[in-house]
C-alpha cells in the first residue's frame, strides 16, 4: 500500500508537470484527489492493516495528498500568470500611434454675435435682462405705447395664442417688465437679447423667428447725445475703429424722437459698393429717446427721468459682419456653413 501511494504521487506530479492549461489541471485534481480517485481506493484497504500500521499509512496518505495539492496550486499560479501575459501581449496598444482626431463643435455665428455684444455692453455697466417668449399683450404692446387700436400693430403681424397672450414680436416687453420692477426708481441700464416671432414668409431676408438685442437706459438727465455716443462706440467695436454713424429721423411708437442708425460701410469705407447699395452707409438699428408715455406706464416720473432705447436684429448684424447672403442659413443646421466660423486659437 505504501508503494502504491508513492507510485500515485509520482504519476500525479508528472501529469501536473505536463498540464498546459487550467482545464487539464482541474481534471488532474479531480482524478487524483476526488472521492473516486485512486488514493481514496487505496485507503479503503486500510481495514486490512494492523492497528500499528494504520496511523502510519494515514499520515503517508495525507502527505501524498498535500504534496499533490501543493504542486497543483503552484502549477495553477504559473498557468494563470502565463494566461495574463499572453492576453497582455495580444492586446498591446502602440501608444506611439497618432490618435483619431475628435470633431469639435464651435459657436454658432448668432451666438458669437450675441456674446460679443453682451461683452461690450457689460463692460459699459449694463446688465443682461431676460423675459418670457410667450408674452402678454399688455407688455408686448400696450405698455410700449401701442394700444389695441394703434395702427403700428399691423406692422408686427403676430402669433396670438389667445386674445391676450401671444409669442412676443420684440424683446421690448423685457424693458417694460424691468422698468415696472424698479417701481419708478432709476437708474435702469440693461440689454435684452432673445428670440422673437412674427408672421412673415421666410425668404433670404425674412424669417418667422429671429433674434433681437435691445438696450435701455433710464436715469436723470439722459440726453440724445448719450445715445449717439453709446451707438458710436458700439459701431466701432463691432465693425471697426474707423466706422462712423449717422442718425436719420424715423418713427417708433415707444420712442420720441426716433432715429434710424446707419454705419459707414465697412467694405468700401463709404465710397459706395454692392453691400451699401452705392450709398456708403448701412442701416443697422433703430433707436430713440424713451417716450414719456412708456415711462409713465412703467411707474417713472417723465418730468424727472428720461432715457434712450435701441434695438437691432442679430441676424442682420451677423449677415453684415460675415457677408452672409441668406438668413435661412442660420437655421438649416448645415455643418458646412457652420465650419466657416470655426474659432482659431
UniProtKB/TrEMBL annotation:
Binds 2 magnesium ions per tetramer. The keyword Cytoplasm applies. SUPFAM superfamilies: Class II aaRS and biotin synthetases, tRNA-binding arm. It is found in: Cytoplasm. Keywords: Aminoacyl-tRNA synthetase, ATP-binding, Cytoplasm, Ligase, Magnesium, Metal-binding, Nucleotide-binding, Protein biosynthesis. Mg(2+) binds at residue 256. This is Phenylalanine--tRNA ligase alpha subunit.
Amino acid at each position: 500500500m505504501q508503494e502504491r501511494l508513492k507510485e500515485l504521487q509520482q504519476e500525479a506530479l508528472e501529469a501536473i508537470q505536463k498540464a498546459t492549461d487550467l482545464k487539464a489541471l482541474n481534471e488532474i485534481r479531480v482524478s487524483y484527489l476526488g472521492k473516486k480517485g485512486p488514493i481514496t481506493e487505496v485507503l479503503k484497504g486500510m481495514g486490512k492493516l494492523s492497528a500499528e500500521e494504520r496511523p502510519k499509512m494515514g499520515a503517508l496518505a495525507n502527505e501524498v495528498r498535500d504534496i499533490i495539492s501543493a504542486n497543483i496550486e503552484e502549477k495553477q499560479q504559473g498557468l494563470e500568470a502565463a494566461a495574463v501575459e499572453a492576453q497582455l501581449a495580444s492586446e498591446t496598444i502602440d501608444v506611439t500611434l497618432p490618435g483619431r482626431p475628435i470633431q469639435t463643435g464651435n459657436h454658432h455665428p448668432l451666438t458669437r454675435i450675441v456674446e460679443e455684444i453682451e461683452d461690450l455692453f457689460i463692460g459699459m455697466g449694463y446688465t443682461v435682462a431676460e423675459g418670457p417668449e410667450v408674452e402678454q399683450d399688455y407688455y408686448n404692446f400696450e405698455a410700449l405705447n401701442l394700444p389695441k387700436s394703434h395702427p403700428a400693430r399691423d406692422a408686427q403681424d403676430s402669433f396670438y395664442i389667445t386674445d391676450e397672450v401671444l409669442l412676443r414680436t420684440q424683446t421690448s416687453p423685457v424693458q417694460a417688465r424691468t422698468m415696472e420692477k424698479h417701481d419708478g426708481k432709476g437708474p435702469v441700464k440693461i440689454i435684452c437679447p432673445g428670440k422673437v416671432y412674427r408672421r412673415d414668409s421666410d425668404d433670404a431676408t425674412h424669417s418667422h423667428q429671429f433674434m433681437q438685442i435691445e438696450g435701455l437706459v433710464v436715469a436723470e438727465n439722459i440726453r440724445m447725445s448719450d445715445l449717439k455716443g453709446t451707438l458710436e462706440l458700439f459701431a466701432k467695436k463691432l465693425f471697426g475703429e474707423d466706422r462712423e454713424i449717422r442718425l436719420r429721423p424715423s418713427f417708433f411708437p415707444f420712442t420720441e424722437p426716433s432715429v434710424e442708425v446707419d454705419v459707414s460701410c465697412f467694405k468700401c469705407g463709404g465710397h459706395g459698393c454692392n453691400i451699401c447699395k452705392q450709398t456708403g452707409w448701412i442701416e443697422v438699428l433703430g433707436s430713440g429717446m424713451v417716450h414719456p408715455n412708456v415711462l409713465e406706464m412703467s411707474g417713472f416720473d417723465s418730468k424727472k427721468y428720461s432715457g434712450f432705447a435701441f434695438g437691432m436684429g442679430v441676424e442682420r448684424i451677423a449677415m453684415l459682419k460675415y457677408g452672409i447672403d441668406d438668413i435661412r442659413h442660420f437655421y438649416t443646421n448645415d455643418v458646412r456653413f457652420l465650419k466657416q466660423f470655426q474659432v482659431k486659437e
